[in-house]
Design goal:
Blueprint (H helix, E strand, L loop, with lengths): L21 H14 L3 H15 L5 E5 L5 H9 L6 E6 L2 H12 L7 E5 L10 E7 L7 H14 E14 L2 H17 L4 H11 L6 E2 H11 L3 E8 L2 E7 L1
The structure holds S-adenosylmethionine and prephenic acid.
Length: 241
Amino acid sequence: MSERDDIYTRPHESVADFEFNSAVARVFPDMIKRSVPGYAETVAMSGIIAARYAQPGTNLYDLGCSLGAVTLAMRHALKNSDCRIIGIDNSQSMLERAGHYLALDDDGPEVDLICADICEHPIENASVTALNFVLQFIEPEKRLSLLSRIAEATCDGGALILSEKIAFSDSEQSIQDTLHHDFKRANGYSDLEIAQKRSAIENVLIPETEEVHRDRLKAAGFSQVIRWYQCFNFVSYLAVK
Ligand SMILES: C[S@@+](CC[C@H](N)C(=O)[O-])C[C@H]1O[C@@H](n2cnc3c(N)ncnc32)[C@H](O)[C@@H]1O
Ligand SMILES: O=C(O)C(=O)C[C@]1(C(=O)O)C=C[C@@H](O)C=C1
């Protein structure tokens, strides 16, 4: 049973910028389940998609893997594969916990966990890469070069699975923000906790519109982009090389 997210319940003089530190890692399964509508589906469906696009003898990457939920979903979907799964995250706290979850699991191909900056770490011989609510935390000016490196390293017919919190036109944005707020309230967050989290992530999580995502994925080198899932302001895409 994961510990409950109470980070924003404790009194704060001021709300520091959000970071994936040990306190967040401790409550992360609870936090993301209660904060991202459809999160569990994006994890489960990443396994399904990976099984379709993985190619023998290649690498599958889970970039910004956190506790390795997508890593394990891909591993279980590729039980008898000779692929290698590589989970990368720059939070040591997250990776330590991911290692514990992995140690309890022995069902599928080899998995390596690497503590590194995904904007710097080499990507090679890839058939499937997942960015599950990660690109939104990368500085916008670095996003095209990261996606281009992924596309360059991806074999023909390979794929990128991208899930993101996205931005909308002004008229839709307020409706989506309200529904997201209602989702968080229904999951037990108070108005104050929601407001504090919004302040903490506003300079850290930078959402972009679907048009920006689609255009950039094509510019990076992916030939086809489809939206396969949406739950309020959280959307999942498949980009095929
Ligand atoms: C919302 S969490 C991702 C959730 C995870 N992909 C999942 O499906 O459970 C964002 C993760 O990206 C990681 N991250 C952010 N920027 C990174 C970077 N430049 N390099 C590596 N990891 C990064 C954070 O440490 C955090 O674990
Ligand atoms: O948009 C929000 O309010 C969120 O809390 C989103 C989000 C995310 O998309 O990763 C932000 C930080 C945490 O990882 C959990 C959820």
